[in-house]
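Field: sequence (string)
Field: structure_tokens (string)

Example rows 1 and 2, in order.
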Amino acid sequence: MAQQIQGLGYSTEAKMGIENGPSQPLILPSNPIPSKRILELDCTRGITAFIVVLVHFSKGTAYRDFFSIFAGGTDLFFIISGFVGFNLVRSNPKAPAYFKRRFVRLIPFFWVCVSLTFLLEFAYQITHGTSTALLMVEYLTNLSFLNYYFGLRFLDGVYWTLLIEVLFYALLGTLLSLGWGKQIERIGAAAIIYILLTTLLPLGPFDGIHKSILRYFPLLVVWPAFYAGILFNRLKYDGGNTTRWLLLLLSYSMAVFAISNSDEIHPVTTVISMTVHAVMTTVYFLFFYLSINNRIPFIVNKATLFLASISYCLYLIHNRIGNGFVRPQIKWLPEPAQFIGLTLSMVVVAFVLTHLIERPLLNKIKKGT
């Protein structure tokens, strides 16, 4: 397996578990934790990214009804981020180091992908005689996610999840800077209880305030998934207790039943029924639990490790570029060939960008700092 990892471009840092496996003492008393990367977690991320690609590419095809059941698959991404984000907090780093590490990992290559999408859009509008003024504003605001708050579109529809990720890591970094790192589990529980109360109780005059909170802090919309990741982390490394399991059950319940909140940014139930959403949320939670506890080792193979290695790039570039610019060029093909060709082409593009831009960029930034 080590040869597989090396062959797919995993660095020594990755193999030692620096990114998703804790390698330093906990901030709370606990049993020692081995510095070991959870390969099932990486492969889960790769599989999830690939499924999201299939969901987006199936729109307007005969395959849409089947792949639409995964419309809420981003929840699995958020569970992973909750788990990984809390891993980084466990060593009690200084807030500036935490912010810097997350910024370097997420933002520079995101800027590359936004710029690539912008250039394609710009070229298209120029050749069709369309004004590019609004596009320029959208591009500049997309770089900082301010487009969301200004009511402007994301250049690629998947970027909304990056906004959520940035808000999550900003929240954890802020708690660290305030010296509240040890209180994250309790603060997260308070947020879950807030979601529970605003779901069950009539809000009356507070309804407008609640919707504004969801609008301007959309992390709260999907907080149950992020908090579940944090709880999975505590259960794995610190052990279970009644309170922790009850909080996980509550997070799962809110991920299912507070789905109306998602209308603010990701209206899942316009694509799938409540029943399907409940079943798939159960699948995501169970799959994640099994993956971090090494109960499904068969998901670790060359194909899933490959997908894991390109997952970030594939997720960022597939939707707008694939559907907007590649699909029209192959629309003359039969539908099955279009679907396969579109998917494979984006995998190839992601592979090339990962190896020619993302990894060299990360290495250059790390060496420079």
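Row 2 begins here:
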Amino acid sequence: MTIALNTQSLAQLPQTVAHPSYDRGALKAGIVHVGVGNFHRAHMAHYLDRLFAMGESHDWAIRGAGVRAGDARMRDALAGQDWLTTVVELDPNGLSARVIGSMIDFTEVDPAKTIAAMANPEVKIVSLTITEGGYFVDAKTDGFDAAHPEIAGDAATPDAPRTVFGMILAALRQRRAAGLDPFTVMSCDNLPENGHVAKRTVCGLAALIDPAEADWVAANVAFPSSMVDCITPATSDRERNLVAEKFGITDAAPVVCEPFRQWVLEDKFPQGRPALEKVGAEFVANVAEYELMKLRILNGGHAAIAYPSALIGHHFVHDAMADPLIRDWLIALEEREIVPTLSPIDGVSYADYQALIVDRFSNPEVGDTIPRLCLDGSNRQPKFILPTLSDALASGKAYDGLALETALWCRYCAGVDETGNAIAPNDDNHAELKQRALEAKDRPQAFLENTTVFGTLGQNADYSAAFARHLSDLWNKGVKATLTAYIAG
């Protein structure tokens, strides 16, 4: 028999399950967090829960918020359990569970109520995990996409916004009118210079509404950058059953994650912040070098293994990493082409970080899936692979394996694996990608002419030639032979 998770049942949980020992009723919500998904609860909420357990920073609890239908579903799932979440760390040496209590409320998914929550005087930080594709970035220019219909809608009706950025601006206007200091906007998404990107989007929208407001935001609102890291698979019946069977808890929305997390932040919080350094967060002068390391080695590594693994039939990431072909391809690409594009960081060994990434990807308990890594390639490739490729081309460094990675993505976008099984659509731009990928079988440049993704990269003759050669090999010789040739050098 399992225990239904809620405040009253905490005392009944098995002794092996850690749970809040602090008084959640005495917490105050100093943070509004938009996007209460698995990653947020495994990462930021976990850090804060451990901090609260130390008797620290009890005025920095989280009030959840959201703008999408998925946010409303998450709110419904958590409401019946008093916003508590079971987080299971998937350590190969033994699983452990902790019930997280750092979120004390979740406002209804309604723009007016979200704005009111942000405008509350007790709120000092508005944080975001809205996915890499949620910042309205124009892939052609890598700048703010002022023409996006949702942005245009908010610019036309600034007092009735539909995007989180419009809601942030509306809340800032309310606070300013009331004589309150602005909150800090903290992105927790996997984006290079995520603070800069968030600021550019907020200020870009503000400029469409009132240029003077944009100037005020730029001068008065802090947007610290951060690097976040913790592999967190999606929750399915597999994870819910695990929590029930191993720990005796019925949780509508548990989270499983690897036993590793990292958070590196700029210390730019004018209205204060929780003492996160006491639970392992790092505050540094230059986050960019850390986030670039992570984005290229970890996220780029995920992209590198995703498409060949899918094409040859691997489903779980750890099974792919147990395949010497995939493992050796990842190691060779990172050592030869990804790491050479990075500048040294004092006190950081790239070799050690690479080895850590290989171990993390190989963890069989995580159960991360290749289909998850393949998601949303048209947004992920321009963030995790193409900047590395551009840097390599510009500096005269090796790029052949990076060209192969993009060819693997093209081959995957054709919609069928090497045994003839159909690949389900998993990209908002699936139809165009598939059409271009099929045309590229005979005319490789067709795929690179997608300037929304590739920008001007497709005009580079050397890269285009390497891409075409690898794509031809993938179709005519197959994935295994093509990877084997690259590994052999």
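free_text_note (row 2): The chain has a mean pLDDT of 96.
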